[in-house]
Design a protein that fits this description.
The protein is an alpha/beta fold and 450 residues long. The chain has eleven helices and 18 strands. It is elongated, with a radius of gyration of 34 Å.
Length: 450
């Protein structure tokens, strides 16, 4: 490709020839020598351009530019990731080039293309940032570099490197933050409530020194005689229980209110499920999941498992699933759950239901509650509250405001119907879902409802 220098040279030759021809015509001079000179200059420039491009291509074949892309093992949805690519060659002279890595269309990128100078016989690291906007497998195609020729007359475009694939998982950054804050005892920063759980459960934890005010029935008399001081048994919340997620993949979970948020309602529900799964596994419980609301061939099922390795398996099982534009059949999902999960579990239903779904959802909850403890978590659209709070100064907003209030009232009435039979209901904005679920899980454990 010709560079700006080549274009300027061609323009200069053409302009000079045109001016010379005009002057020759005004003075009635022959124009053949001028045309011959212009053609000679153009031919010389063409030969110089071709020679420059050929010599540059020969040098690149002799000492090719090597491209290496350093990729993480996985990406987190909505999180910015810094990538490093390395350019290297063994040639005796530096190269001026522009680099553009072929970032997948489901990612945004920053700091590309990059204009760099690759020194002679050396390596150069180039950094840029990507932000995944969708979960699942993504492929980075070979990168493109545009190398400036030795004389600066041509740019040679090359494809370098190899295609690489990597998975985009739900936003596991929340898990890291939770683990760090839990170790530092500052979980209130993300809305997680903490309670003194000493003696709250029934599973024996350890022996401890008696403190006035503790129940005397927990005193271990044999240990007290051995240590010659009062020793009590300390207990912890019940372990070895089961938490099962019932994840709605229907059309209403496709809602995506803000482009700068952490993804759609489904993405944020999946993030909240991963955080609660981490907390439950840390507490010694088993975690499983099942999806509904899409085709039977797309349904995912993960049997309840214990241990932190189960979290990786669960994420790998669900990370690439997407909601579909279909209706969610709550009753069919409840029947499937009853057939698959025989052991009494805490079933967390993650959905976004409407008042017209109340009768069907009520039957589904009634069926599941014959064996399980069911926590219904529904996502609330923040945009409805924004519309309802609009000013009525503009007469065109009256219908929108009235419709928003009608929708809110109908939804609230449906929740009141469901709450009259069971209090384990959650109706929050997507960004508050994770903390709310963890708090409800802790409350269920403390109350020993399982």
């Amino acid at each position: 490709m010709p560079t700006r220098r080549t274009v300027i040279a061609v323009a200069a030759i053409a302009t000079g020839a045109a001016v010379a021809l005009l002057v020759a015509k005004a003075r009635d001079l022959p124009d053949l020598p001028i045309a011959t000179a212009g053609a000679a200059l153009a031919g010389a420039l063409t030969l110089l351009f071709l020679a420059d491009a050929a010599l540059t291509a020969w040098a690149l074949r002799r000492h090719p530019i090597v491209f290496e892309r350093q990729m993480p093992s996985a990406f987190a949805l909505g999180q910015s990731h810094a990538l490093v690519v390395t350019l290297a060659h063994e040639g005796p002279r530096p190269w001026r080039l522009a680099l553009f890595d072929h970032v997948p269309a489901t990612m945004t990128q920053r700091l590309l293309p990059a204009d760099v100078v690759l020194p002679a016989a050396s390596r150069l690291d180039v950094r840029y940032e990507v932000t995944p906007l969708r979960r699942g497998k993504v492929v980075f195609e070979p990168a493109a570099i545009r190398v400036r020729s030795r004389l600066g007359l041509a740019d040679l475009q090359l494809r370098v490197g190899a295609a690489q694939s990597v998975q985009v998982y739900p936003n596991f950054a929340a898990l890291s933050r939770y683990a760090w804050l839990a170790g530092d005892r500052r979980l209130a920063e993300i809305g997680i409530k903490t309670y003194a759980a000493r003696g709250a459960g029934t599973d024996f934890k350890q022996l401890g020194e008696y403190v006035p005010g503790m129940p005397t029935r927990h005193i271990d008399w044999n240990a007290s005689l051995r240590h010659r001081r009062a020793v009590v048994r300390e207990f912890q919340d019940d372990r070895d229980q089961s938490v099962m997620f019932l994840l709605d993949c229907g059309r209403r979970m496709r809602a995506d209110e803000r482009a700068d948020a952490d993804g759609s309602h489904f993405d944020q529900a999946l993030n909240a499920a991963m955080l609660l799964a981490y907390v439950a596994l840390k507490d010694g419980d088993a975690v499983g999941a099942m999806t509904f609301g899409h085709e039977a061939s797309q349904q995912r099922h993960f049997a309840p498992s214990k241990g932190m390795a189960a979290l990786n398996a669960l994420v790998a099982r669900l990370h690439d699933i997407e909601p579909t534009p279909t209706h969610s059949d709550y009753l069919a999902a409840a029947r499937d759950l009853m057939l698959r999960v025989r052991r009494r579990s805490l079933v967390v239903v993650l959905t976004n239901f409407r008042d017209e779904d109340c009768a069907e959802l009520e039957d589904a909850l009634k069926l599941m509650r014959t064996r399980h403890l069911v926590l219904l978590a529904s996502l609330k659209e923040g945009v409805v509250a924004e519309i309802a709070s609009q000013s009525l100064d503009d007469h065109r907003a009256i219908v929108d405001v009235a419709s928003a209030h009608w929708f809110q009232n109908a939804r609230a009435e449906a929740f009141r119907r469901l709450a009259g039979k069971n209090q384990l209901l959650v109706d929050v904005e997507p960004e508050k879902l994770a903390a709310t679920l963890v708090n409800r899980y802790h409350a269920v454990k403390r109350a020993r409802l399982l």
